Amino acid sequence: MSEYSIGAYEVKEAVSSTFEEFISIVKGHSITSGADWGADRFELGLSGGIMVRFFRTNNNITINLISTQNKDEIPPLVVALGDMPQRVPIGVIERKLNGLRTLYAIFYLTETGRSKELESYLIRHPHGDIEQSLLEDSERLNIESISYGSWLMTIWASSKKTYDSLRSVVGLVFERGRDAYLRKLEAQAKLSEAKAIREEVQTAREAFALKKDQIDYLMEVSDKMDVPEIKRHIRDRMLKAAENFTIDDQLDADTYKKLKDK
């Protein structure tokens, strides 16, 4: 029977794990490299700064996970695009990504004290690309991979503010994925050497628990706008973005309907 562990044996940091935890960590990550070290060991590098190592020990195989990130580097987030078939039109993926970009950009700007800048931009460009126009390259999200298996994508954030904004969008807007997302976040934190991120996981779970029935949380950002017309427009933009992000997934679409009815 295979054995599972997390952490490097070389520095005596390995701890016992399970098959279920192994799957929760690696699911959604793509193979990016590989190395064959001989009869007793080979490795697979995965997107998101993860390495899977296979060791032959006596009559068993040990499967070991380690992080290849730098210490205290902000880890990636693995975000579900929805429960879709194995093959989907490219246009569906494009709509989902644009929906996520819009939701994230609005949330990031409001949470970093830039509501007035957003309001001014929407007065001049009501249908403009918010992320492209108002966010710097360092503030935008970067995708490393998209994998079939509930259509999971690995996203890197370049700063803690970017990371927090994305985490909030994913965890609060989409009811279906919240608990699964938190379990994934906790598993990733166990692998990560970033102490600050590990400490934030419990805070995230507590925050999500408090807002478990408040799936319209993001809609409250419209209240930060002064111009009534822009308040309505922000709400409409966010509803459209949520609709785009939940397209072709019935459970996520049900969450969108609840948002729309608020």
Give the SSE map:
Elements: E1 3-6, E2 15-17, H1 19-26, E3 31-36, E4 41-46, E5 50-57, E6 60-67, E7 77-80, H2 90-111, H3 115-124, H4 130-134, E8 142-147, E9 152-156, H5 160-173, H6 178-191, H7 195-210, H8 228-245, H9 250-261
Parallel strand pairs: 1-6
Antiparallel strand pairs: 1-2, 3-4, 4-5, 5-6, 7-9, 8-9
Helix pairs in contact: 2-5, 2-8, 5-6, 6-7
With strands numbered from the N-terminus, the spatial order across the biggest sheet is: 2-1-6-5-4-3
Provide the helix percentage. 40-55%
Gyration radius from CA atoms, angstroms: 20 Å
- Spans of at least 5 consecutive residues whose pLDDT stays below 50 are 208-215
Number of helices: 9
Shape: elongated
Mean pLDDT: 78
- The N- to C-terminal Cα distance equals 51 Å
Secondary-structure content class = alpha+beta
Structure report:
The structure is a single chain. The protein is an alpha+beta fold and 262 residues long. The chain folds into two domains: 3-67, no CATH class; 77-261, no CATH class. It has nine helices and nine strands. The protein has helices spanning 19-26, 90-111, 115-124, 130-134, 160-173, 178-191, 195-210, 228-245, 250-261, and strands spanning 3-6, 15-17, 31-36, 41-46, 50-57, 60-67, 77-80, 142-147, 152-156. The protein has a six-stranded mixed beta sheet with strand order 2-1-6-5-4-3. Helix 2 (90-111) packs across helix 5 (160-173), helix 5 runs antiparallel to helix 6 (178-191) and helix 6 (178-191) packs antiparallel against helix 7 (195-210). It is elongated and about 70 Å long. The model is unreliable at 208-215 (pLDDT under 50).
